[in-house]
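In practice, a research group might receive sequence data for several interacting partners and want a quick structural hypothesis before committing to experiments. The following worked case mirrors that situation: the sequences arrive first, and a predicted assembly follows.
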Amino acid sequence: MAEWGERLAGVRGVLLDISGVLYDGDAGGGTPISGSVEAVARLKRSHLKVRFCTNESQKSRGKLVGRLRQLGFDICEEEVTAPAPAACQILKEQGLRPHLLIHDEVRSEFDQIDTSNPNCVVIGDAGEAFSYQNMNKAFQVLMELEKPVLISLGRGRYYKETSGLMLDVGGYMKALEYACGIKAEVVGKPSPEFFKSALRAIGVEAPQAIMIGDDIVGDVGGAQRCGMRALQVRTGKFRPGDEHHPEVKADGYVDNLAEAVDLLLRHADQ
Amino acid sequence: MAARRALKAVLVDLSGTLHVEDAAVPGAQEALKRLRSAPVVVRFVTNTTKESKQDLLGRLRKLEFDISEDEIFTSLTAARSLVEQKQVRPMLLVDDRALPDFQGIQTSDPNAVVIGLAPEHFHYQVLNQAFRLLMDGAPLIAIHKARYYKRKDGLALGPGPFVTALEYATDTRATVVGKPEQTFFLEALRDAGCVPEEAVMIGDDSRDDVGGAQSAGMLGILVKTGKYRAADEEKITPPPYLTCESFPHAVEHILQHLL
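A structural hypothesis for the assembly, expressed as tokens:
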């Protein structure tokens, strides 16, 4: 593989995944990944543009940012690209009234959305709300629609909490796809539109941007398909097999965000 | 297809073939008696995710069918026999009523997942537990993959969507054990001590009974009772070996032409 200097040349903007890169979440509040608080601070003091790009759909941006600030991170709501607000925009544009299969903690993001007489289903990482009854309700809403529309906030397979790996929204999305014989529209990584909106927010073009994430497919593969570069951290849901993934090869693998930031500050264009 | 050999076994579907809901197919009890007088092994094969053999047997006996428990082979039996072959300890995501069919199977400290239709188990905590076992390399065994079924209050999700969820999350494939999987028929025949070329299947489901059996190398007879709908016999290739009115006609054909 080429030298880091070559691999990171011309980088002006950085997209940071949150869960598994900044911290490992859990029911309590989560634990910062060692060195990540300082790494974010250093990055933000540098000349590089920084945007947080998350598929978090268990919490509103406000709650997520509040939690991260408690852990010591320098982050504010306006710096975060998340799927729920992006979905709201699509719902408004297309005149869709969703049945919401989502976590209570993210419901506030949909406060301005008309949910009466639903003509689509929005599914997020509902956590405990993924009961058979709730899944069945979403299924029945879809089956009653002439043209069923399913919008999924990300399609991750799993993520890591301090207690271990947790099923993400992707499995439940697939369950509804299979039951109804439909394809969901994914809002979030790895959808190119989602990465592009994050890049627009910091005014950086894809070839000058790099994604740092723990998901080889959703973060790394998705960003690369948009023309960005991408690093995978060996934290969060990272598994050793990821470095030999049959389809996706990251532009580099680093132990954690701190190492990624070291390399970026040393090698990205001044 | 291998050359046919002398008939040794007859596999018979239950619901829709011997009985439709709580009524026997006319003449079916008598026909079964006649079949039993011939030198063939008879096995009753069915896809079920919640009825144990005992439940099935109770219903059939009430309808005055002469059947014993060890002649019944269900998708639950097939799951059990796969669990035994693999020598694994399953986490059982099955309806409580199906548990008697897994009696004696070691389930503590599980290293496999068996999934049937179990709405009470299909929720976040339990699915997450199953997911973690699969991530540690446990095999996933599915009784079947039906998308949904009809309940009194409307359509309801079947096991298929939840199997698919686990398959996607873990990037693995489930082993499906019910009809129309070849392994289902082969297991039922192993139990009967013969090979597919020595066996015939009688059922009302063109794809799951007849198509599945014929893909496994058996002859398939489609009966026009139960879920049969006009032209069902044209929905599979090759077509059924025989399509006839009902179970008694199928038995008559076997006695006259296949022995």
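Before designing any experiment, note the following. Helices of chain B lie at 28-36, 53-62, 75-86, 124-135, 159-170, 182-192, 206-215, 247-258. The radius of gyration of chain B is 19 Å.
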